[in-house]
């Protein structure tokens, strides 16, 4: 990877530096709340026999993704809020990008698999256990993590042909692909086209699967008599769909329509949704409102 850049300055959010005493404590609360929520889900799944189902198996891997994403991104963000900007090595920046791409790609695919799981459970319950057996679920998750790793590897393999000449400043709070490519003096059109193609496969494709699954689920729920849980089912599905739409909507906006200049602030704000907000909301939406999860939590609590 030829380059005359050995270090990179991350600017973070320069405009909120005067509000750091408000923004920093809020992020600390979100950070530790997210870590606690996702660790709780992983721990309960590991020790509770009542949660040993495909749905919670996928949710546990989603929690792992969220835990790693926020650990990858938020410490750097907190550092930029305190100091205004930070200096990181070029290699560290590339490593953070690879880690992030692996996790976000895996999360996109996991969410689509989770929607298909719910589609089978609600729309085709008689075939659910025969299709979603433990071996099949394990293979799905292994494939998902492998695809996430391949996505990151593809980005890294594409970069050795680029010459990075600077300036060595990134107007972002973490090392994202588009800001890194803007440091290159080489032609990056091939990589941009590659990102669009892979983005349709990993982001747009899964989102379409999710929307189709939820449409089928909604049609099935409408057939349920009003006094047998239709409202609760709609409430649960709508909350899932809102969080999923936030996650995919911001990802598609940022990566399918990359921005520069004055629009970079908007891109950074949107990035906060899938790097900070979604990892916080996922544990709340998918488990903490779930009666099985609550029972497992209280059972473990009583044991202590």
What does this structure look like?
This protein has 304 residues and is mainly alpha-helical. 75% of the residues lie in helices and 3% in strands. The chain has 10 helices and 3 strands; from the N terminus they run E-H-H-E-H-H-H-E-H-H-H-H-H. Strands 2-1-3 form a 3-stranded mixed sheet. Helix 3 runs parallel beside helix 7 and helix 7 packs antiparallel against helix 8. It is globular, with a radius of gyration of 21 Å.
Beta content: under 5%
Helical content stands at: over 70%
List unreliable stretches of 5+ residues. none
**Separate helix tally:** 10
Terminal Cα span: 54 Å
Q: Count the beta strands.
A: 3
The strands making up the biggest β-sheet line up spatially as: 2-1-3
CA-based shape:
globular
Arithmetic mean pLDDT = 85
Query: C-alpha Rg, in Å?
Result: 21 Å
Structural class comes to mainly alpha
Order of helices and strands: EHHEHHHEHHHHH
Main sheet record: 3 strands, mixed
